[in-house]
Amino acid sequence: MKILYLCPDLGIPVLGRKGASVHVRELIAAFARAGHSVTLAAQSLTKSPTDTRAKVRARVIQVPADPAVTTAAQLFKEFNECLGVENSLPGELRRVLYNKQLARGLKPWFNRNRPAFIYERASLYATAGARLAEKFHVPHIVELNAPLAVEQTAYRSTGFGNLAAEAERWTLMQADAVVVVSAELARHVSSLGVPKRRIQVMPNGVDPDLFHPRPPDRGKSSVSPGPVLGFVGGLRPWHGVEILPKLLARLSRSHPDLRLVIAGDGQLRGELERSFQQRGLQRKVTFTGALLHESVPDIIRGFDIALAPYPRHNHDFYFSPLKLFEYMACGAAVVAADVGQISDVVTNGRTGLLYPPGDFNALLTCCERLLAKPELRSDLGQAAAKLVRRKFTWDHNAERVVKLAKPLRTSRRK
Questions:
Q1: How many domains does the chain have?
Q2: DSSP letters of 44-88?
Q3: Which of 97, 104, 102 is nearest to 42 (CA)?
Q4: What are phi and psi of 408, to 5 degrees?
Q5: CATH number for the domain including 322?
Q6: Could you tell me which of 300, 339, 325, 342 has the C-alpha nearest to residue 387?
Q7: Other CB atoms closer than 10 Å to residue 41's CB: what's the count?
Q8: Domain that holds residue 193
């Protein structure tokens, strides 16, 4: 079966190191393992031209933004700078104008290689996929990983008011099916008017051939022997990483040889480094920076405790944390906030330890308990790895998507 995987978001370099980039490539790899032929169409390949490109099991079509679109966005950016204001208007304008360029760039390909269906990772203001599906009578499945307009308002200043929300609703209503990564997100999509029969919940997954338990290689984790706390992911406010300096400081009182490994990068790295230094903990912390995805399993296997310290949010926890499934698949003992999909995946005391989000003392207690009981860490990790291998793999998700697409092909031809 021919599949067009559409990822129009400039912020997702599909051959780069972001979690979203990994998600795109891993699902494509699962389609390919099942015998399907995938073409990946995207605006951005890597964050920087000098970055090493990850391999992907697909033909790649890059449809860059028209220079005129880039110029228009730059003019708006300069206008903001002139006024001394900061907003997301230049980026939003670029997203809106890119739709025409993307549709125009892919139409000739459709004439020669009409796919069985379009699978699109939703992004702000992206309407080209829906228009192509309508023009060529091809099923359109949209994958939504967050309530995009809500997230834009919560974490970034918006430039076009309600337009992002209207565009998101329009695209989801046009789709033949909407794949969401959590039950919370399914409720959001339903609230926009999308019929529940068109909504499918598919949590993130892993490639079990890459992420699986085995004895840790301490050399690859870049720390000396001793208990290791670990975190993998973007260093962003909604991931709860701000609590790590305080946590390490408290745990180090009773575990002086404790170390912390932070695998990832992001806007909070500088702030975290300063906080560790102010507490005199800089020698206990290793920042790996952004890693190639193939390097992540060896890092996780070096963790005695794997952390998912999400804070309490002022909105529904709609995430499907990729780190959670990767931790568990590698047999790491997980300590995670008891919220959203995490509560559904992790059984407290059996496949990990949960604590109320934002409750520092409860987080501390969970970590102390695991540091004192190596056998409990082992039992939790083994049970978690078995669960993930049975239920949460990319191959399982790819199989569900193809099964979902088959009847849609008939309905689109009518």
A1: 2
A2: -S-SSTTSPPPP-SSEEEE-PPPHHHHHHHHHHHHHHHHHT---S
A3: 102
A4: -70, -30
A5: 3.40.50.2000
A6: 325
A7: 25
A8: 2-205+393-413
What is the Cα–Cα distance from 205 to 395, expressed in whole angstroms?
9
What is the DSSP code (8-state) at residue 38?
A: E
Tokens of 355: 């604590």
Token pair, residue 238, equals: 């909604």
Give the pLDDT confidence of 333-358 residue by residue, as tens digits. 999 999 999 999 999 999 999 999 99
Tokens of 115: 């796919």
- Whether residue 223 is predicted with pLDDT greater than 50 in this model: the reply is no
Tokens at 47, concatenated = 């964050």
**Structure tokens, 293:** 């995805």
- C-alpha to C-alpha distances, 285 to 295, 297, 408, nearest whole angstrom: 19, 19, 51
Q: Taking a C-beta distance cutoff of 8 angstroms, is the pair 345, 201 a contact? A: no
End-to-end CA distance of the chain: 20
380 and 397 belong to one structural domain: no
Please tell me whether residues 293 and 170 are part of one structural domain.
no
300 and 370 fall within a common domain:
yes
With beta carbons less than 8 A apart as the criterion, state whether 266 and 234 touch: yes
- 3-state helix/strand/coil string of 183-224: HHHHHHHHHCCCCHHHEEECCCCECCCCCCCCCCCHHHHCCC
DSSP structural state of residue 121: E
pTM for this prediction: 0.90
Check residue 168 and give its pLDDT. Answer: 94
Q: How many CB atoms lie within 10 A of CB 398?
A: 25
CB 243 within 8 A of CB 250: no
Distances (CA, A) of 230 to 264, 288, 358: 11, 11, 18
From the CB of residue 235, how many other CB atoms can be counted at a distance below 10 Å?
22
Grouping H, G, I as helix, E, B as strand and the rest as coil, residue 261 is strand
Instruction: Calculate the average pLDDT of the chain.
Output: 92
